[in-house]
Amino acid sequence: MAVISSSPRRRAESVRARPALRPRTWRALLRLGLILCDLVALNGAVVGVFLYFRSTIEAAGDRLPSNPMDVARFALLFNLTALIIFAANGLYEMRRGASRVDEAFKVVTAVSLVAVAGIVINTLLPQLGRQDLPITRDVLVWSWAIAIGAAVLLRGLHRGVVYWLRRHGIDTRRVVLVGAREPGQLVWRTIRRRPALGYRVQGFVSDTAPVGSEVEGLPVLGRTSQLGRVVRATQADEVIIALSGRSTQDLLEIISLAEDESVEIKVYPDTFQLITNNDISIGDLSDLPLVSVKNAALDNPWNRALKRALDIVVATTVLLLGAPVLLLIALAIRLESPGPVFFLQERVGMDQQPFWMIKFRTMRVDAEQLGAWTTPNDPRVTRVGRFLRRTSLDELPQLINVLLGEMSIVGPRPEQPRWVEQFSQQIPRYMRRHKEKAGLTGWAQVNGLRGDTSIEERTRYDLYYIENWSLLFDIKIILRTVVNFLTGKQENAY
User: Fold this and answer.
1) CA distance linking residue 422 with residue 419, whole number of Å
2) pTM score > 0.90 for this model?
3) Which of 24, 29, 8, 18 is nearest to 354 (CA)?
4) Which residues face 240 on adjacent strands?
5) In what order do the strands lie in the sheet with 280-285?
6) Beta strand 264-267 with 238-241: parallel, antiparallel or unpaired?
7) Which end of the chain is less crowded, N or C, counting CB atoms within 10 A of the terminal residue's CB?
């Protein structure tokens, strides 16, 4: 029986049954483990070789710096440089099915560059008034060789741990294959041969095989026009499109359907020529090359780390400096009307996960029973609430959501689950908004698209932000938000 024969569940609701840690959290932890493995390999090699050759070095009249801080400064610069070099060589991309041989060659290149960087750093230390380290030829050669061996070995052990976790349901991905003919079957057979990759294929989506039938032991779940419903019903994380003989327009329409569901999209090489180079990046699945479609800038872990750092700095600064204002607002709310100071409402965030968004209460306690959508001159809004809404000060408690990691300072504004369900059915690509964290402010908001304004227009602005993110773009939006607040240009704030 086809999976889509029953009404699909909203991902915002069904996600509660998943493990406590989100897939991105697990991926971040595994990447952190890989970074630690490399640091242990590099530092262990250098320290071990220094200790082994210490007597020889001292006999030659050289000694380690007498000031431990000189050694600490070298170690800090050395490790930071090493991480940058390893990352630049693609050693933290965590691609499934990547060749071990290719990885080993990348390790050799990275460690060699790190060795050169270590020499440069050590040479520059005396120029900065610090004592350099006695790096002899033997120390350099043996440290380089042992670091390569240790990094390859520890990375192999890390890979084994990852495979073990995947066999126990951690760091797995639910996949839907589009196309049940030879290209799709080839992808399925490749995945089936490599269970340690952690792919859990839910079934095919096909316009040729009968729905409900099986192809090579895998069920056919629906037609390509039903791809969105199949993704929601199976809670898929990834869609792999493996079609042949389809027109460019057909393939782009299928990609668009998958984009609406905020899943990762990969295309089998048969369709390489149908997607522009600006929209693709090449990866692989075991011995099969695949194409990732339209990776957002924030898919890069380093970009996410930068954005998270900005969130923490801004949220902490505003909460600390604005604490007296927050207390005055809370007092004003309590004096005007009975009820709680804060208003908590369920909203849908990144990966369609629900969270409780915090705001200052601006309406009567029974406001939700009297209506759902806020309109100009809404009678449910209190006098203090009207001022807070006009100045957007009611949003300040969401900085707590930012510190908790549920929101970001900049991003698409979160909606209630019922509106997400409705808009996802009406607006193309709406669900791509949920590929990133919801924001306290956003590109749509600073352009006046808030309140009772066009959802389609807001979505276009949100998608533009996601696909063109940069740290400078975030700072620009934050500055425009501050300027709008100071000048009173809070368009459609009511």
Assistant:
1) 5
2) no
3) 18
4) 177, 266
5) 214-215, 218-222, 199-205, 173-178, 238-241, 264-267, 288-293, 280-285
6) parallel
7) N
